[in-house]
Amino acid sequence: MCGIVGYIGSKPAGDIIIDGLRRLEYRGYDSAGIAVLQDRAIELRRSVGKLSALVKALESNAVRGTVGIGHTRWATHGRPCEENAHPHTDCTGKIVVVHNGIIENYLELKKQLQQSGHVFKSETDTEVIAHLVEARFNGDLLQAVQGALAQVRGAYALGVIAADEPGRIIVARRDAPLIIGLGEGENFLASDIPALLPYTRRMVFLEEGDLAAISADKVVIYNSGGETVVRKEHSIAWDAVQAEKGGYKHFMLKEIFEQPQAIQDTFRGRLSPEDGAINLDGATLPAEAVRQLSKIYIVACGTSYHAGLVGKFLFENLARIPVEVDIASEFRYRSPVLDKNAVAIVISQSGETADTLAALRLSKQGKCPVIAVCNAIGSTVSREADATLYTRCGPEIGVASTKAFTGQLTALYLLAFDWAGKRGTLTGDTLLRLIRELWEVPGKVSEALKSSDTMRSLAKEFSQARDFLYLGRNINYPVALEGALKLKEISYIHAEGYPAGEMKHGPIALIDEDMPVMVVATAGKVYEKILGNIEEAQARGGTIIAVATEGDEAIKSKTSHHVFVPHVDELFSPIINVVPLQLFSYHMAVQRGCDVDQPRNLAKSVTVE
Length: 609
Ligand code: F6R
Known about the structure:
Elements: E1 3-8, H1 13-24, E2 31-38, E3 41-48, H2 51-60, E4 67-73, E5 88-89, E6 95-103, H3 106-115, H4 127-136, H5 141-149, E7 154-162, E8 169-174, E9 179-182, E10 187-190, E11 202-205, E12 211-214, E13 219-222, E14 228-229, E15 233-235, H6 251-257, H7 259-267, H8 287-292, E16 295-300, H9 302-319, E17 323-327, H10 328-331, E18 342-348, H11 354-365, E19 370-374, H12 380-384, E20 387-390, H13 403-423, H14 428-448, H15 452-462, E21 467-472, H16 477-491, E22 494-499, E23 517-520, H17 527-539, E24 544-549, H18 553-558, E25 561-565, H19 573-591
Parallel strand pairs: 16-17, 16-18, 18-19, 19-20, 21-22, 21-23, 23-24, 24-25
Antiparallel strand pairs: 1-4, 1-10, 2-3, 2-4, 5-6, 6-7, 7-8, 8-12, 9-10, 9-11, 11-15, 12-13, 13-14
The structure holds fructose -6-phosphate.
């Protein structure tokens, strides 16, 4: 939520910052701004709306200078308008701040600052930081920021520059991500890896409470106690091209089509279809601990939560361990019974979701070991978990999560296989068969992607619908939830995901000719039941769109609208069945003229509670 970029070196800072912000726009896009230092003066430009508005403003009023910071905003305090756009300045206009996070005690601080004569220009919480720094600045920006942060409560990733100290950028983080990119005679800062990929692969992830002084030729990091510390340098293998659209009209479509690769990359090298060996390289629990497990808590938000719901079926069916799946914002405020014989699996694409992080910390406090399933290398979740099983999806830029979901499912299959093997709940032969089936999944997903044209035609037909019902059962109930979420978030159509068997206990009252019903009806143990549910919906005038298994003649004759996916063992059906649903929501959004990659009101990485 909110993206920050900064540069210090010898090149035009404005170009690099705007380019980085473009790659971070998925973090927020209701306003953007940039501040560049030139001849001991600050040049500030801000615009409401997407980054393109700022770029336009810069065309007629460019910034010059080789040191600067920029920001793309997702509003928390103060509506989206130019005054509330970052960067924010102190009374003199010489101290400039960009911030991602929330300063919880800003009202109290603002009052005190106003009483001592500071004049505020925005409604934001961030502006207090600029004034707090101003109040302490006497030529040493580092000390002034240190002093200011001692007074604030809340979450922050921030970058600060001062006209009177042009040779460095001061940055700090607490409960919000911040990365320093290392170059030759230049250095960078950013909220997330993709912003810096074209410039450097050498990155340092700041830790909680860290503060750093970044100049063109050095980076000095201090921990929360003020001591100088060295943080590990990571070499990031992600390709800059992965963070580009690469000929696709939208990131979301590109990422949907990257799924076969993302799935394969996630399991490759971790299991062998020859002998059934599984090697998760420490990103699991030791055999003895797995045998002792009394319970699994899976905790996540949004799409990652839906992956967790599928995970429940996997761990219960294969490893015979009881599983509870929780939405992180609920888990953190209930009193889960945690102990060392339970394990928490937290799932997060970004690794920065505030509620998921809070759930992780709560689990650790309860002495419950935590395994993260995470995509973002070096993210807070991955650093704080006891072990991280990385999905290898590459950067996911589209706000609606697609390849991260199927990557998460793949990681959960790996963990469930590993634990079933360690507990002896599956015979070697069965395990080997399942591993071989997983090996075939990327090819089957490629087949399922061929449904794109069918989904486009269906989207044309249904684009004016106001409501949608998504039904699924058993291991495909979470797929119905995920399909409905995708439709809601990018095409703004009300959609509800429901367990098909529960329909008659309420939602059936909603069904009429204006309520299309998407049904996941692929082969499996509840197939006959789903056919019954289709009949029930049709009897009430509902139009069914069925996702069915190739060769299913019964569905063909029963439904006017259907799409076929390749046959897989039911256990793997969610990873295939979700594909046409992703494509449907994509084409619906395009039909309706919606902004697919940057849907209204959303941000990709939800770093505030
Ligand atoms: C939906 C979506 C969100 C995220 C959720 C969790 O398409 O992207 O629902 O899944 O915000 O994000 P992570 O996985 O980064 O913790």
